[in-house]
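## tool: complex_structure
## caller: assistant
## args:
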Amino acid sequence: MALASLGVLLFALPLLGLLQRAAWSDLWSDLSAPAARDALRLSIECSLWATLLSVVLGVPLAWVLARGEFPGRALLRALVLLPLVLPPVVGGVALLYAFGRNNGLVGPWLYDTFGVQLTFSKTGVILAETFVAMPFLVLTVEGGLRAIDTRYEDAAATLGAGRWTVFRRVTLRFLAPSLAAGAALAWARALGEFGATITFAGNIAGRTQTTPLAVYLLLETDPGPAVAMSLVLLAVSVVVLVALRDHLFRGRR
Amino acid sequence: MSLECTFTAGIGTLDLTVDLTVGDEIVAVLGPNGAGKTTLLRAVAGLHPIDTGRIAVDGAVLDEPASDVLVAPADRPIGVVFQDYLLFPFLTARENVAFGLRSRGIGKAEARRRADQWLDRVGLADRADARPGELSGGQAQRVALARAVVGDPRVLLLDEPLAALDARARSEIRRELRRHLTAAGGARVLVTHDPVDASVLADRVVVLEAGAVVQQGTMQEIALHPRSPYVADLVGLNLYRGTAAAGVVTLDGGGRIVVADRAVAGEVFASVHPRSVGLHAEAPAGSARNHFAGTVAEVDALGDRVRVRIEGTVAIVAEITSAAARELGLAPGRAVVASVKATEVGIYPA
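## result:
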């Protein structure tokens, strides 16, 4: 009991610390300070793109993992889930040596052929956020796909539905809760991304400086906006948690 | 209208071998669990691959591995009522019925009109807006039936259409299903493990056991002349296999049975109805030609009768009144002699 209480304190104290430090009356002006405003706007834009990219790439990936029969599937899953446990900064370094303009694996080719530079750009932020966020979506959607009774898809097929129609009108309908949960988790993760972003995309105000980066930077010089932005991130986390409570804690009550 | 299927298919360790032609009739595929009944339906619907042979509807080949013909499930003129019905839970009854029409490119208004027509025909016009979760088992079954037939398929397949229903509702729903099936026309194949379903719903019964068809005919024919222990058990007959010569059947499992018909010779089945078996404390001096000594293995009360299973060289089930059972003091382990008159033994070629 004592140890459990200690554990609770470990979670509760920082939360209280943040909340008591908040200047509630100045919250709005803190958030509309230029540095905060730019960072928030960039964060929302990039995290939404990262979520979209995670859905577009992650759903097919989850499909392959859940339904595919091929050697090396376990290995593929391990690869996809690696960013979950990999220190984000290592992910950033890895991204740098893959997409870096000068010393990356495919970076120089991307720049020479298409004139695309990912490092230190908004696209780079999106890429870094997708890298760390997509595993959440893949994991959730794969679980959702496995839980579907495939006989419903068979039933749809006997009713004249082609593969795409079956997917759209049956699979996706059964999958919707998992997809929403996975997207929300991925979005929350992308919004809070720090290590991979700062390593891969840098910390350029207005271009690659997302909210977590701005919080870290401002904390020394101007804690007001830093705390205000922290509260925004906290609020988002709480909202996501509440929205997903049924999905995440199914059968634990 | 006809469905022809002559094929083999593998399911785990079981090899399914089917040779079946269904015309404008209702055929029941009857068999125990794991006999391959559902796989048969899935193969016809295009949901399970066949290894050899062909499946054709009205002469049009749907599946023939040898000539690389394989029509996708969506393009087969086949409607399926699945076990548990599998109505889409997120659609209303009407939308479920309209699903097939919509996916075959029929406009929303027309699909809705035809779906409503069918719901009306199965007596569910007032439940069109209900979700499957709000329907009773019998109602769900009728929606599933409407969904399967709304596109006018030439073949209708039903997998255990009554298994999901509780016993009380069953007989009523069974009669109703028979009415709808009769009205539907075309080749209709239903799979069941229940001989009552088979005899009420079907014109003809095909018995499938361990992946192979062991017997076909009307339920009466099958009940009269079972050709496997499974069927005999279903209809409650004692069944023996042996070689007949000059009015005596020498059983494959040991022992012999005297029969009235002296003309039958060769491999035969001999069947004995439990009610024509007499039980005695010791061998009686009556007219019965057959006496089988054994011990009581099981006594089952069925109202004012009891079924007694006797083990011995010739194992046999007898059905006697409970008063007689009391008088004989029947209990497991008791030594008895069973008697059967030669004229009570059914005999037919194996």
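## assistant note: The two ends of chain A are 21 Å apart (CA to CA). Chain A has a mean pLDDT of 90. Handing back to user.
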